[in-house]
Amino acid sequence: MHFGVDSCCVVIAQDSPTWDMAFHLITDFGLEGPYVGQVLARLYHDAPQIPAFSLFADAPAFDPQHGAYLVAAYGGFTAVGDVMICVVDPGVGTERGGLILQADGRWYVGPDNGLLVIAEKQAQEAAWWWLAPPIAGGSQTFHGRDWFAPAAARIARGELQAVCALSGSPTVGADWPDDLAEIVYIDRYGNAMTGLRGTTLPMRARLSVAGVVVKSGTVFAAARPDTPFWYVNANGLVEIAVNRGRADEVLGLAIGSPVERV
Question: What is the pTM of this model?
Answer without folding.
Answer: 0.92
